[in-house]
Amino acid sequence: MSNNISHKRNQPVQNMRLEDIIRNLNLKNGANQKSIRAPQNRSRLVIKGRLLFSTLEQIDGATIRFVMDRYDKNYLEALDYIIGKRAPEKISTNNGDILLPSINKNNVLAKRYLRFNRMIDSKVINAFIRNKLIYQSNSKVNNKVVANIVFLGYDKEGKIQHIHKRAASDQSKYRVNVKRSVPEYSFHWNGTDDSIYFFEAPIDMLSYISMNEEGWQQHSYAAACGMSDKVLFRCLEDNPSINKVYLCFDNDEIGESATNRIIQKLNNRKIDYEVLVPFLKDWNEDLIYELGDELVWKEFKL
């Protein structure tokens, strides 16, 4: 049935001129009608019937393939954007506009990775997905579709200001803060009580919550998505009721150094704190160890 839906969506696309489709996607005309320049890209897209060719990137193919590759869309999302005459969604942050990674609504691979590779509790995963803090995004790498997990950070007005992506697979080390993300608003959870738990990475944060689930939603949590402490002090500023900070960085030299640096700042501001150190290197390793023999779970890994 899905094939029929795809075919019906595809029909109006095949009947549209490429020039019209590209203009619908808000691309600007070049010097002549046979060449169109893409925004934020120096290459020219030379129109040849229903095909196109990028003189710098050596990309050729159908219009739908162009939208998929250029704007990180899957096939159906590309069709929706073309037919709906919409440009890919941009988010305006304090650092400028950033493109929101494509959204795969079923989140199957993201959930599977977090649950079976990282052992995050399913109720915790669903809570963050339900609150639009986590979702799955698919992209193409070497002509293969790969899944990434997107962690969103919002400001106090509910506007996305930070996007962190990581591969939904242990076979890839890919992780990145999307360009123009604002570090003061990296991945975090706003609770209702007077405490905040601060971590290096989103996976560590979710792992700790999975090991300490009772009443977890009442606390606040933040992940640096790196080593910056800006999100911690932004959370403290935006939530003046918070008066206790739990520092939960990795059990290694880098984590210890970052913890000591933040302690100095907290002491200067007379903010109460406590240092929590994982038994192993990080909180995810502790979680896996706590749940049992890791070798048993490797059968389920992607």
Compact summary:
With 302 residues, the protein is α+β, with helices and mostly antiparallel strands. The chain is 35% helix and 25% strand.
Topology (SSEs and partners):
Layout: H1 2-14, H2 18-24, E1 28-29, E2 35-37, E3 44-48, E4 51-54, E5 60-62, H3 63-71, H4 75-83, E6 90-93, E7 96-99, H5 108-117, H6 122-130, E8 134-141, E9 144-154, E10 160-167, E11 175-177, E12 188-189, E13 195-199, H7 202-211, E14 220-223, H8 230-238, E15 244-247, H9 253-268, E16 272-275, H10 283-291, H11 294-297
Parallel strand pairs: 13-14, 13-15, 15-16
Antiparallel strand pairs: 1-2, 2-3, 3-4, 4-5, 6-7, 8-9, 9-10, 10-11, 12-14
Q: Any overview of this molecule?
A:
This protein is an alpha+beta fold. The chain is 35% helix and 25% strand. The chain has helices spanning 2-14, 18-24, 63-71, 75-83, 108-117, 122-130, 202-211, 230-238, 253-268, 283-291, 294-297; strands at 28-29, 35-37, 44-48, 51-54, 60-62, 90-93, 96-99, 134-141, 144-154, 160-167, 175-177, 188-189, 195-199, 220-223, 244-247, 272-275. The protein has a five-stranded antiparallel beta sheet with strand order 1-2-3-4-5. A five-stranded mixed beta sheet has the order 12-14-13-15-16. Helix 1 crosses helix 4, helix 3 crosses helix 4 (75-83) and helix 7 runs parallel beside helix 10 (283-291). The radius of gyration is 22 Å and the shape is globular.
